[in-house]
Specification:
GO terms for molecular function: transaminase activity. It contains 13 helices and 17 strands. The protein has helices at 4-12, 39-49, 60-80, 93-107, 122-134, 153-157, 182-192, 241-244, 266-286, 292-316, 354-363, 378-381, 400-417, and strands at 19-20, 24-25, 27-28, 86-90, 113-117, 139-142, 164-170, 197-201, 220-223, 235-239, 317-318, 321-322, 330-332, 344-349, 366-367, 369-372, 388-393. It starts with a helix and ends with a helix.
């Protein structure tokens, strides 16, 4: 775990770590719904919002904006460890998933099928359902393991056929909290359908670090910056060279391979550079690496280790505080002992509506969230026969003291259910 001194430095770099601007002091365990924002992002947003100039003009201010944009693209490539390809900004992560899936389906060889998995967020599944139908292809779903909360390369291998034209993969589930083996799944797809376009939803995974597209043999990777320490209002994606070569929505006579439409917010690009700079800074605190990518990798490893320690304490207990997994009536989605977990625990309490539990935790000053068996989470909860659950999502700026406070509150709430 991070030392107390380093954790204090980390927390000082984020806005509203301990206090909600509307309700006062609180513990923030709703990071999967949107992570805390870097103070540097807040400052950068304010600074760029006041600049009147646009890109593409023959003046020094415009040229400075273009430099910021180009730097942001390079920064994202370093963060993703992405070989070649293009980095694009869009309306949101969901919108970019739809765009990448659309262009892959329209540009792929005719016929064949489109493949997703049942563990996926509706963003990628809905995009595949729509564009499979629009291009008159079957949409085939790979079943996930309900007990483990994951989907395996083997599960894909059993479903993918040589005529699979487009496939999507979820990196990490925002409901189960489990990460999937993206590289292994991609290799399983390519072994059967070498020319398949493979697009990955990395939205939930990004804030936990450790993105590496160098050996993932994929064609698209999408993140939502507000879930990785930036702000709302834009999405970021990487697209391979061959996906970029396909036709896109574009202005007649415009440059080939251009993904973006209209004049973009330069501040959005600049704030993503702030995020990459933060990972770089953290990597320098936890390693002696001199290479920027190596520092980012070190930051990802340290984030994973810190979050794993927090979730273990939450599940198994700390000191004289009983862990969630041992509280009477508590059921853990995807099991308490699951090595795929990434900073998130979803659970329910027998005999207690999840909405009441979330409200009780709120009253105790702990921010969590209820997931319902609706179009967002029904794919996970319905097979478990569960109408809802409580999601507790951590990030690397959370502390053991915050976990202690949560466990004390959870013990009292669980006792009331009995």
């Amino acid at each position: 775990m991070f030392s107390d001194d380093l954790l204090a430095q980390i927390r000082a770099r984020f806005a509203h770590v301990e206090t909600c601007p509307f309700t006062g002091p609180r513990i923030f365990f709703e990071n999967a719904g949107g992570a805390l924002t870097l103070n540097s992002v807040v400052d950068t947003t304010t600074r760029f919002a006041g600049i009147p100039d646009n890109q593409g003009r023959d003046n020094p201010a415009s040229q400075a904006l273009v430099k910021v944009i180009n730097q942001a693209r390079e920064d994202v490539k370093v963060l993703f460890n992405a070989p070649g390809g293009a980095v694009l900004w869009g309306e949101s992560g969901t919108e970019l998933l739809f765009r990448l899936v659309q262009d892959a389906c329209l540009g792929a060889e005719k016929g064949g099928v489109v493949v997703s998995s049942t563990v996926e967020h509706p963003a990628s599944r809905s995009a595949c359902a729509r564009w499979a139908a629009m291009t008159k292809r079957p949409h085939v779903l790979v079943p996930h393991d309900d007990e483990a909360g994951t989907v395996s390369p083997q599960a894909y291998a059993e479903v993918v056929t040589p005529d699979t034209r487009v496939a999507t993969i979820l990196h990490t589930s925002p409901v189960t909290g489990m990460g999937n083996d993206v590289a292994g799944i991609a290799r399983a797809i390519r072994a059967v359908s070498p020319d398949c376009y493979i697009i990955v939803d990395g939205i939930q995974h990004a804030c936990h670090g450790r993105i590496d597209l160098s050996d993932a043999v994929i064609d698209g990777y999408v993140v939502s910056p507000y879930k990785v320490f930036s702000r709302h209002g834009y999405g970021v994606a990487w697209a391979s060279d061959r996906l970029t070569m396909l036709a896109h929505d574009a202005l007649v006579g415009g440059p080939d391979g251009n993904w973006e439409l209209g004049t973009r917010d330069t501040g959005a690009y600049a704030t993503m550079s702030d995020v990459v700079g933060y990972f770089d800074w953290l990597g320098a605190q936890v390693s002696d690496a001199t290479d920027r990518r190596a520092r980012i990798e070190a930051a990802g490893a340290a984030i994973h280790a810190h979050e794993a320690a927090l979730t273990k304490a939450m599940l198994t207990g700390i000191g004289n505080l009983t862990g969630l997994a041992e509280l009477p009536g508590v059921r853990i989605v995807a099991g308490a002992d699951n090595s795929a977990r990434e900073g998130l625990v979803s659970f329910w309490i027998d005999g207690r509506p999840s909405g009441e539990v979330v409200a009780a935790l709120n009253a105790a000053g702990i921010r969590t969230h209820m997931r319902k068996a609706d179009h967002y989470s029904g794919n996970i909860l319905a097979p478990l026969g569960q109408p809802d659950c409580i999601r507790v999502s951590l990030a690397h700026y959370n502390s053991l003291d915050e976990v202690r406070a949560f466990l004390a509150a959870a013990k009292e709430i669980a006792a009331q259910a009995g």
